[in-house]
Amino acid sequence: MVLDGRLCYGGDYNPEQWPAEVWKQDVELMRQARVTLVTVGVFAWSRLEPAPGRYTFDWLDQVLDLLHAGGIRVALATPTASPPPWFSLAHPDALPVTADGVRLHHGSRDTYCAAAPAYRAAARRITGLLAERYADHPALALWHVHNEYGTTCHCHHAEAGFRRWLRDRYRDLDALNDAWTTSFWSQHHSDWAQVSTPRATQYLPNPGQVLDFRRYWSDELLAAYVEQRNLLRAATPGVPVTTNYVLGDWVPVDHARWAAEVDLVAIDHYPSDAGPAAEEQIALAADLARGWARHGARHHARATDGDLPGARGSWLLMESAPNLIYTPGRMHTREPGRMARHSLAYVARGSRGAMFFQWRAPRGGAELFHSALVPHAGPDSRIFREAVELGGMLDRLAEVDAGVVEAPVAIAWDAASGWALQQRALPSDRIHHHTEVAVAHRALRRAGYACDPVLPGDPLTGYALLVLPALYLADDDTAAWVRDHVHGGGHVVIGYLSGVADEHARIRLGGYPGAYRDVLGVRVEEFHLLADGEEVPLTGGGTGRFWAETVRVAGAEPVDAYAAGVLAGQPAVTRHRYGDGVAWYVSTRPDEGTYQRLLDEAARAAGASPTCPDAPPGVEAVRRRSPEASWLFLLNHTASAQRVPTAGIDLLTGAVVEDAVTLPAGGVAVVRERAGA
Ligand code: GLA
């Protein structure tokens, strides 16, 4: 446990932005809100080391002592995401270079190249000092390394690192040339010195080079993290170490792979919408975090030490916004009540609490209007009152931390497939692995199923159904993973653009989807791309969008077919018995209702059932279960009261639920279910 039996509640605390008088008031307010954990020091490097080698830890000593006296634990951060101005001046070679060759300058945060030796050495130094000084501080609960690893660089340090990484992976240049298909456009390398990072170039870049650069850079950033983690672990073997993941398609980090190196998966999550779309985004982000945690726990160096929280799918929401959410053009308000309901949505899906950015709204600086638990208006405000209310709720929910989220469906997620489908000159720039995962996840959620993201190769025991949405890349092991699963009796739904390419993003020949033709009993000859807004009718009554294909059946039975256009009469959805299992193929993007019905049918046929079949539409139901108890989270996202049949005790109100709970509009219940429920 991070917090000895309590859920984590609090956020980024930046006392360095305030005079010492405010610190005492902060601790008082934190106690009032029942805050249990704050992240301190994330961007404090220039206040800890104002000049090279001159350290001023005294203020941090005082802050940690004050927090400890107030009963608040600390996630102590290493400040390496924001080197001070003196560092950049002394080490201009450690400033980052863009793909266009422009060297960025100090003035924001993250102005470093993670591969620059001077930066890495400075990061190790300040981390080592923090570890030494605070190893025994009683407030220390968690180490928080850096902040949101996600920068990229194309400087000569990065280029040298890339070459080293490639030599390691391919050993000889012939293998690299083959993997990158350098026979195309005269790109054959005859010396390692010719190999560069994918900088700005005349026309389309080499897809193999771009993909490998993203893989390399994720590993380079991971190495930077691991250096710090090792120092912290050596000083405090009993204190867990994490780093907060930033989410987004642009992020050059393979979060699942990183999960084996953190003691607790932690994500920052800022939905791009303040309304109902936020609820879908929250569910997906939370499920991804849980999937990464479970995947990581299996490969974790401490996996043999016993029960790692990640194995149970535990993770932590490290940052979220209490109120205003950045959306393009203007910020959006989180309506009253949403902060609590949304926070509990993360907890329902395995988070060990709810943390925010940030505690107190700053009076200046680049993010001066970012929302905070103590807003500019001060504690006499709706937001702070909601913060106090949320603290009380989380206090009453501590026991759910023991529960594992129940999910009968697995959905494949893979960073590299996402990166490969971001390349240019693909048949459609509308189809991305992550979008397809989100669309399938939304359909499953609306049909009432919880699902666990899994990575190729992960064990599938316990999952009734596996869904592969545009899992573009498949090496031979991935192909065998799916084949063996279905042959052994598993059910799978495979979407278009899955298994089309190998691990180097080269096409698997002989008809699409090369990796899964035998399992699916189909052979796809051609793609037919639809224009934006265009729909193709299906004989089952729905429509297909974005993508369609010429599907030739080779053993599969058609389930739905194209009803018009060049593909009229040809299969759109097929089903194939393979070994003891069943494999569905979906060759277009069905409209939402059709996709929901299709996945529901596939899930039921596989033996799965929704979490709470009687929950009315708009009420999200998620169950966490431990060997001793089960908890049903019910989140009413609608604007009217909703009644849900269940029995037990509502932990939020303490009320006994005899046969049904009535949730007020926008309300939440967390029912410890009566045994046998
Ligand atoms: C990220 C960062 C924070 C802050 C927020 C703003 O999550 O970690 O420092 O910039 O975004 O949304």
Automatic annotation (TrEMBL):
<dbReference type="GO" id="GO:0006012">
    <property type="term" value="P:galactose metabolic process"/>
</dbReference>
<feature type="binding site">
    <location>
        <position position="153"/>
    </location>
    <ligand>
        <name>Zn(2+)</name>
    </ligand>
</feature>
<keyword id="KW-0479">Metal-binding</keyword>
<dbReference type="InterPro" id="IPR003476">
    <property type="entry name" value="Glyco_hydro_42"/>
</dbReference>
<dbReference type="Pfam" id="PF08532">
    <property type="entry name" value="Glyco_hydro_42M"/>
</dbReference>
<feature type="binding site">
    <location>
        <position position="109"/>
    </location>
    <ligand>
        <name>substrate</name>
    </ligand>
</feature>
<comment type="similarity">
    <text>Belongs to the glycosyl hydrolase 42 family.</text>
</comment>
<dbReference type="Pfam" id="PF02449">
    <property type="entry name" value="Glyco_hydro_42"/>
</dbReference>
<dbReference type="InterPro" id="IPR013780">
    <property type="entry name" value="Glyco_hydro_b"/>
</dbReference>
<dbReference type="InterPro" id="IPR017853">
    <property type="entry name" value="GH"/>
</dbReference>
<feature type="domain" description="Glycoside hydrolase family 42 N-terminal">
    <location>
        <begin position="12"/>
        <end position="396"/>
    </location>
</feature>
<dbReference type="InterPro" id="IPR013738">
    <property type="entry name" value="Beta_galactosidase_Trimer"/>
</dbReference>
<feature type="binding site">
    <location>
        <position position="155"/>
    </location>
    <ligand>
        <name>Zn(2+)</name>
    </ligand>
</feature>
<dbReference type="GO" id="GO:0009341">
    <property type="term" value="C:beta-galactosidase complex"/>
</dbReference>
<feature type="domain" description="Beta-galactosidase trimerisation">
    <location>
        <begin position="407"/>
        <end position="606"/>
    </location>
</feature>
<keyword id="KW-0326">Glycosidase</keyword>
<feature type="domain" description="Beta-galactosidase C-terminal">
    <location>
        <begin position="618"/>
        <end position="673"/>
    </location>
</feature>
<feature type="active site" description="Nucleophile">
    <location>
        <position position="319"/>
    </location>
</feature>
<feature type="active site" description="Proton donor">
    <location>
        <position position="148"/>
    </location>
</feature>
<protein>
    <recommendedName>
        <fullName>Beta-galactosidase</fullName>
        <ecNumber>3.2.1.23</ecNumber>
    </recommendedName>
</protein>
<feature type="binding site">
    <location>
        <position position="147"/>
    </location>
    <ligand>
        <name>substrate</name>
    </ligand>
</feature>
<dbReference type="GO" id="GO:0046872">
    <property type="term" value="F:metal ion binding"/>
</dbReference>
<dbReference type="Pfam" id="PF08533">
    <property type="entry name" value="Glyco_hydro_42C"/>
</dbReference>
<dbReference type="InterPro" id="IPR013529">
    <property type="entry name" value="Glyco_hydro_42_N"/>
</dbReference>
<keyword id="KW-0862">Zinc</keyword>
<keyword id="KW-0378">Hydrolase</keyword>
<dbReference type="GO" id="GO:0004565">
    <property type="term" value="F:beta-galactosidase activity"/>
</dbReference>
<dbReference type="InterPro" id="IPR013739">
    <property type="entry name" value="Beta_galactosidase_C"/>
</dbReference>
<dbReference type="InterPro" id="IPR029062">
    <property type="entry name" value="Class_I_gatase-like"/>
</dbReference>
<feature type="binding site">
    <location>
        <position position="113"/>
    </location>
    <ligand>
        <name>Zn(2+)</name>
    </ligand>
</feature>
